[in-house]
Specification:
CATH class of the largest domain: Alpha Beta
Distance between the termini: 21 Å
Strand content: 5-15%
Number of domains: 2
Structural class: alpha/beta
Number of strands: 11
CATH topology of the largest domain: D-Maltodextrin-Binding Protein, domain 2
CATH superfamily of the largest domain: Periplasmic binding protein-like II
Helix content: 40-55%
CATH architecture of the largest domain: 3-Layer(aba) Sandwich
Radius of gyration: 21 Å
Number of helices: 21
Largest sheet: 5 strands, mixed
Shape: globular
Strand order of the largest sheet: 2-1-3-11-6
């Protein structure tokens, strides 16, 4: 499927339930309630069988670090236990396609890699680096995934990728004590968001944390505003570069963003501070300091839960969440992303790991740890550690095939997925100078035209 997707939940009601659950007091995630990796659930009776791989050594490359790497390693340890293989996690640099290209040129590609962009799958397939899914992996995929997620891992009809990890990238997490002290409520529209930010600022707390040092967070800001304001048709056309970045719809979205980015007093650390703040810190600084944190709210996906938990804040009580607000009269947007496992080597080891990752058994292990969302429809929602994450997961699966994918992740990686270049760099420059909407548009179009031509 050439166009990725952005989760357009037929159930805005599910997201409303998300906010209601988050405000309901308990998070449903006490240690007593937390299911273990071996708990029963959707995996029962799936008939998953894996071959003996005793003596085989596999390498898996991913850009994950910190808690994500640690939790994925738990999944790999279970695979080792079931097969007898030895699996080594290989830390990869971003963009991972460049990292893999170097490994392949040196004759030492990993057996499996986790690709975080649809565009990266297409690029790797075009380079003939990828091995098609074997029959066992395809059977697991057919049994447990909707057609939309299957199509995202395919190129020209050939299935290569298993989307193991998904993300709802349209959530705003907030410090409930800071909101309560300011008398602030959850905003439903962009106009309300700016008003809420001003209210919180007047209470003595900086309202918004922005992880501008990581350009991908800025693409997510843009995509949510653009999808809601311009609509899905233009979103798809811009994603395919059938619509130029100089289009008036892009100007409207950037002008809307400037209503927030153009007020440094609303950003933790001001403009310079935002540009020096990496994503993990943007989250943790929102939930440390009690009712006087560095910021009262932070926009990003469900995976922020891991960073929130690291602060000791309790999701559902200390840390609550609301859907990204509607912009310009459009519906509230919901953008999804994901990481797909692909094989770069022939052999039963790589295919067995892809088969395992396509099963609910593998998804359940990480789900129990939090900060994870699976597109696997057979995963028992009880595997998630709290009601907030269960509601997010239910909404994702409930969307069926009616969704779209993160825009920047669909584009050539040189434009939409490279630190310090392309869209990431231009939007960082825009954060520095949000008055220059026309200049940002021109720069975006120049970078996009070059990337699509290449």
């Amino acid at each position: 499927m050439r166009q990725g997707r952005t989760l357009r939940l037929a159930a805005v009601t599910a997201l409303a339930a998300l906010a209601a659950t988050a405000c309901g007091g308990g998070d449903g995630g006490s240690d007593d309630d937390r299911p273990s990796a071996s708990a029963g659930g959707g995996s029962a009776g799936t008939g998953l069988t894996l071959p003996s791989l005793k003596g085989e050594k596999l390498e898996v490359a991913a850009v994950w670090t910190g808690p994500e790497q640690a939790n994925f390693t738990k999944v790999l340890k279970e695979f080792e236990k079931r097969t007898g293989a030895t699996v080594t996690f290989v830390p990869a640099q971003d963009p991972i396609v460049n990292f893999l290209g170097t490994k392949i040129a040196g004759g030492s590609p990993p057996d499996v890699a986790m690709l975080p962009q649809v565009g990266a799958i297409r690029q790797a397939a075009a380079q003939k680096w990828l091995k098609p899914l074997g029959p066992e992996a395809k059977a697991q995929l057919a049994a447990h995934y909707g057609k939309g997620w299957q199509d995202l891992g395919a190129v020209d009809g050939t299935p290569y990728g298993v989307y193991f990890k998904a993300a709802n990238k349209s959530l705003v997490w907030y410090n409930s004590a800071a909101f309560d002290n300011a008398g602030a409520s959850e905003p439903k529209t962009w106009k309300d968001l700016i008003s809420t930010a001003e209210t919180i600022s007047a209470s003595g707390v900086t309202p918004v944390s922005v992880g501008g040092a990581d350009g991908w967070t800025l693409t997510d800001w843009f995509e949510n505003v653009y999808l809601s304001q311009a609509g899905p048709e233009k979103y798809d056309r811009l994603a395919r570069h059938e619509l130029k970045w100089t289009d008036p719809s892009v100007a409207r979205a950037l002008t809307t963003l400037a209503e927030l980015f153009g007020k440094p007093s609303l950003l933790a650390g001001g403009t310079n501070g935002a540009l020096q703040t990496e994503f993990p810190v943007s989250v943790t600084q929102t939930f440390t300091g009690g009712d006087q944190p560095n910021a009262a709210m932070v926009f990003e996906g469900d995976f922020s839960a891991v960073n929130i938990a690291a602060t000791g804040a309790k999701i559902g009580t200390d840390a609550k969440v609301f859907p990204f607000p509607a912009v310009g009269g459009g519906p509230a947007p919901v953008v999804t992303g994901g990481d797909a496992a692909v094989a770069l080597k022939d052999g039963k080891g790589a295919q067995a790991l892809l088969t395992f990752l396509a099963s609910p058994e593998a998804a359940r292990i990480w789900a129990a740890e939090g900060g994870f969302l699976s597109p696997n429809k057979s995963l028992d929602k009880a595997a998630y550690p709290n009601d907030v994450q269960r509601t997010i997961a239910t909404a994702l699966i409930g969307a069926g095939d009616d969704f779209r994918f993160d825009m920047s992740d669909q584009m050539p990686q040189s434009f939409g997925g490279t630190p310090g270049k392309g869209e990431w760099k231009v939007l960082q420059d825009f954060l520095k100078n949000p008055k220059d909407v026309a200049g940002a548009q021109a720069a975006l179009e120049a970078e996009a035209a070059k990337a699509y031509k290449d």
